[in-house]
Amino acid sequence: MKKNHGAKRILIVDDEANLRHILKIVLGREGYLADTAPDGEEALRMAGDSPYDFILCDIRMPVVDGPEFLRRAADAGIGSTIIMMSAYGTMDTAIECMKMGAYDYISKPFKNDEIVLVLRKAEERVRLKDENRRLRAEIEREYSFAGIISRTPRMQDIFSLIRKVCDFRTTVLILGESGTGKELIARAIHFNGNRRKEPFIAVNCGAIPENLLESELFGHVKGAFTDAVSDKSGLFEQADGGTLLLDEIGEMPPFLQVKLLRVLQEGEIRPVGAGTARKVDVRVVSATSRDLAREVADGRFREDLFYRLNVFCIKVPPLRERIEDIPLLADHFLEKYGERLGKAGVRLAPGAMKALLEYAWPGNVRELENCIERGLVLCDGDIIEPECLPDGLRNRIPAPVNVLPDDCLSLKRAAEQLEREYILKALEKTSGNRTRAAKILEISHRALLYKLKEYGLE
Fold it and tell me: What integer pLDDT is reported at residue 398 of this predicted model?
């Protein structure tokens, strides 16, 4: 008998007793610990009671056939590597079984060496998957902080800032483009600080109509307005003792900015229709993708509120400025969605990774995450090829034409020009539909209207 290769356990499932017997002898000589089952029902029971490294399963069987076995094994959480066998199978059957979770497929009659070779390849695949999982875990331990993954010095500096501010009630303003992970930063501040056991509540100020936002934030009393049939606590009260994230704070209407300033100054709220104020202990973290200093200069945001919010500022860099994080993040999302979609161990082809590294990522980390999930859904094997990526990555849109003077080195003006070009492209793609364009740009409709006016595109 050959060396047992770590005594890998294998279950042979076939309704032919003679084949089961022969395979058990052959694989036993190769060092495998082999058990047998005459049908899929018995195999499911055995695999559920005692885990196997590999399962060799016939497609045509009574009681429970191969495809049904695959479905039920997946439902039962059986994690064995499954290889299908059939004397009647076609390539279509093979592809269908592999889509359902089988690792490989072998046609009967097969030589002993063939089945051993398939198992050796499967062993190597499992070894590589385990190694990749171990390496990814090591990388995430070294380069992650509260679920945020990065090896760039700028992000490591942000991790340091979070550690310094997390235990204080100081207001924090998080600036960054859409999709950069501003809410993750806010959560890291809360869950690493002394308020971690209290509520963390997030609200997008641009996603709630103006006439409802005041009641949502501060609550209301019964009879305050037509639909106020009972008292309702607002988000500030619900977050009492904890943290309230005011996302897209730049879109808060002016009349509410005054009320928010009072909360920050006095530590109390007044529900709509109430005659008295109520004390609250809430740590306010705000976030925005807009240039608040410019909003103040243009009279759209209160200067006194800006300074109240901007006590401690964290600026999150866009993904295009942290290119070295793309492979790390891609691996993280491959692991996350690979497990969820039943495609663990899938990796990116060199050409696909090259496309990721060369793309500008206007949607930042959120866009990368969506891209990896899409690639996993579309790929047929263990490799995500470039054709599985969105068209925008494979056929990259040329950078906007530089209309700035050669002697102009203003990053602010360059960023404005880039933003203007993306707005124009989104409007072109949606035939001028502003609501759809705002969704593509991942900003609110109101924010788009501001920008159209700002850039003279109305």
Answer: 41
Let me know if 371 is exposed, middle or buried by CB neighbors in 10 A (0-12, 13-18, 19+): buried
Are 9-126 and 411-454 the same fold in CATH? Answer: no
Q: Which two tokens stand for residue 369?
A: 């995450």
Using DSSP bridges, classify how beta strands 81-86 and 54-58 pair: parallel, antiparallel or unpaired: parallel
Which of 100-114, 158-172, 332-346 has the largest mean confidence?
Answer: 158-172
The verdict on domain 148-315 having CATH code 1.10.20.10 is no
CATH topology for 411-454? Arc Repressor Mutant, subunit A (1.10.10)
Q: What is the CATH number assigned to the segment(s) 9-126? A: 3.40.50.2300
| Helix, strand, coil percent content, the chain, rounded in steps of 5 | 50, 15, 35
Please enumerate in sequence order all residues whose Cβ is within 8 A of that of 193, keeping only pairs 6 or more positions apart, or say none: 166, 167, 168, 283
Q: Measure the CA–CA gap between 378 and 352, rounded to whole angstroms.
A: 13
Q: Is residue 41 within 8 Å of residue 64, measured between CB atoms?
A: yes
Helix axes 17-29, 112-143, angle to 10 degrees: 60
Query: Quick one: pLDDT at residue 396?
Result: 55
Q: What is the pTM of this model?
A: 0.62
Q: What is the CA radius of gyration of the chain?
A: 29
Which of 37-51, 234-248, 411-425 shows the highest mean pLDDT?
A: 234-248
Domain ranges in the chain? 9-126, 148-315, 320-394, 411-454
* Amino acid, single-letter form, for residue 286: S
Residue ranges with strand state E in 95-199: 104-107, 144-145, 148-149, 172-175
Cα–Cα distance between 181 and 322 in angstroms, integer? 13
Domain 320-394: which CATH number of 3.40.640.10, 1.10.8.60, 1.10.10.10, 3.90.640.10:
1.10.8.60
Query: 3-state class of 5 per DSSP?
Result: coil
Give the neighbor-by-neighbor strand order of the sheet with 243-247: 200-204, 243-247, 283-288, 172-175, 312-315
Closest CA relative to residue 273, chosen from 218, 224, 227, 343: 224
Q: pLDDT tens across 40-90, in order?
A: 899 999 998 888 999 999 888 888 888 889 989 988 888 899 998 877 666
Beta bridge partners of 384: 348
Strand segments, DSSP code E, in 69-227 are: 81-86, 104-107, 144-145, 148-149, 172-175, 200-204
**DSSP codes, 352-404:** HHHHHHHS--TTHHHHHHHHHHHHHHH-SSSEE-GGGS-HHHHTPPPPPP--S
* Tokens, residue 448: 């788009």
